[in-house]
Design brief:
149 residues; 81% helix; disordered C terminus
Length: 149
């Protein structure tokens, strides 16, 4: 049997890495969105407005919220960062990244061939990642409530 304190430390380490990963990716998307915005201004072309806004809003703002949320919300309730299902939290990270990347790629596909519709599919993946985050945070908060403290 695994010592619960060792297992808890492993989960906390994985959660710390996940939070750092989210924050690093968020700042990457910030730089990408800002460079895209400067490029659009420099060339007087707003064809990539959807990409620009989604990179900044979803890629930077939402990913930063995910990273900080996984760290702060459990800490407010338990004193230590924790999530009931760390595997689902890591899956949520990949869903959010794949969803955003697919949505952005689909948005620049040729409209005439219908390839741009792929962004709708990846939009659902991104929405699923957001819902999974809400469920994980709800379970984290609910665990404390059921304990009666």
């Amino acid at each position: 049997m695994i010592d619960p304190s060792v297992q808890d430390r492993d989960v906390q380490d994985r959660l710390h890495r996940l939070c750092r990963r989210y924050i690093r990716v968020a700042f990457f998307y910030l730089a990408l969105g800002l460079l895209l915005g400067v490029g659009m201004l420099a060339f007087g072309n707003d064809n990539f407005l959807f990409v620009h806004t989604h990179v900044l809003l979803v890629g930077f703002v939402l990913f930063l919220i995910y990273g900080i949320g996984f760290k702060l919300i459990p800490t407010m309730f338990f004193g230590l960062p924790r999530v009931p299902h760390i595997g689902w939290a890591e899956a949520q990270f990949w869903m959010a990244n794949v969803g955003l990347a697919g949505m952005l790629i689909g948005s620049v596909m040729p409209v005439g061939l219908g390839l741009d519709r792929i962004s709708v599919l990846f939009g659902f993946v991104e929405a699923g990642a957001g819902i999974l985050f809400a469920v994980l945070m709800g379970k984290t908060i609910g665990v404390r409530g059921r304990a009666g403290t």
